[in-house]
Amino acid sequence: MDYKDLQAFLSLSSLLHLGKASQQLHMSASTLSRRLARMEEEAGAQLLTRETTPLQLTAAGELFRQHAEQTLLGWQQLRSAVGTKVSDLSGSLTLYCSVTASYSFLADLLSRFREKYPKVDLRIHTGDSAESIPRVESGEADVVIAARPEQLPGELTFKAMASSPLLFIAPRMPGAVLPLNQADTDWASVPMVLSESGLGRTRVNRWFEARGIRPYIYAQVSGNEAIVSMVALGVGVGVVPELVLRNSPMASRVRVLNVQPELEPFAIGLCARSQRLNEPLLQALWQTAII
Predict the structure, then answer these.
(1) Over the chain, what is the mean pLDDT?
(2) Rounded to an integer, what distance in angstroms lies between the CA atom of residue 22 and that of residue 1?
(3) Domains within the chain, CATH numbers bracketed
(4) Please, where are the H alpha helices in the chain?
């Protein structure tokens, strides 16, 4: 729940009419209705009765109205006290990233962006990290958080925000896979759990090819998060970015292997079409990202 939600509820509680409030807020009645349903779900109570015209605040709704007023007043007082400069820039941007990227980068980026550009609506879509670059190339997303590909398409621009090592991981349970961390490990007989495609798969394929090894691929999955889960179950050895492992609930059930030479780390950052970087909304987001 954010300040926009609280402001929307105050408009509803004042006008007690979905259509009038949606006009005041410059959004559709269906969008406002969904916002109200989300607020009720998060509050754990019905806030407005919809069976009457005009609408009526429930007892919980009255408490929530007071909370919304106090919260927004406190925010306004804080902004006034610290002299925060808020931009009037408005519009919407669609950002695509993996679930892991949303945990690692999105909260901090959105917090800083919304503080300065509260009128810009950032629409977040999440999915397989391998889809990030194709999404921005096709125009399905205005900007993505992604690992920089080895050959960045000429029409794209990338801004690095962090680096993430690419790690070999094995299950902690004894006897689940062949003994590892030994110089004489027979990698051709080690069951591997790898991503179906993407930068990580390209780099691990190259690692095996450089050593003349044909890997035993036990499973190929979509998404790095699933690799950690399968390795934790003891089915084989996987290769994942360190960021994925750090945010995985299964991290305690796997161990990182000391494999030499190490795989090349990922550069993680924002990626967008170069010709669009002069657009005010993209410029604002681009400048907010801290290297």
Answers:
(1) 85
(2) 18
(3) 3-82 (1.10.10.10), 91-163+267-288 (3.40.190.10), 166-264 (3.40.190.10)
(4) 3-15, 18-25, 29-43, 59-82, 99-101, 107-116, 132-138, 199-210, 224-232, 242-247, 280-288
CA 67 to chain centre: 29
Q: Are 143 and 271 in contact (CB under 8 A)?
A: yes
Q: For residue 233, is pLDDT > 70? A: yes
What's the Cα-to-Cα distance from 284 to each of 68, 91, 262, 280, rounded to whole Å? 28, 12, 36, 6
Give the chain's largest Cα–Cα span.
78
Amino acid at 232: A
Residue 122, phi-psi category: left (phi > 0), alpha (psi -120 to 50), beta (remainder)? beta
pTM for the model: 0.59
Dist CA 239 CA 45 (whole Å): 45
Which pairing describes strands 91-97 and 143-147: parallel, antiparallel, or unpaired?
A: parallel
241: enclosing H helix or E strand:
strand 237-241
At position 60, the amino acid (one-letter code) is A
Amino acid at 45: A
Contacts of 265 (CB under 8 A, 6+ apart): 163, 164, 165, 166, 242
pLDDT, tens digit, 9 for 90 and up, residues 19-69: 888 877 777 788 888 889 889 989 999 999 988 778 889 999 899 999 988
Nearest to 122 by CA among 147, 105, 100: 105
Q: Which of 162, 200, 179 is nearest to 255 (CA)?
A: 179
d(CA 146, CA 129): 7
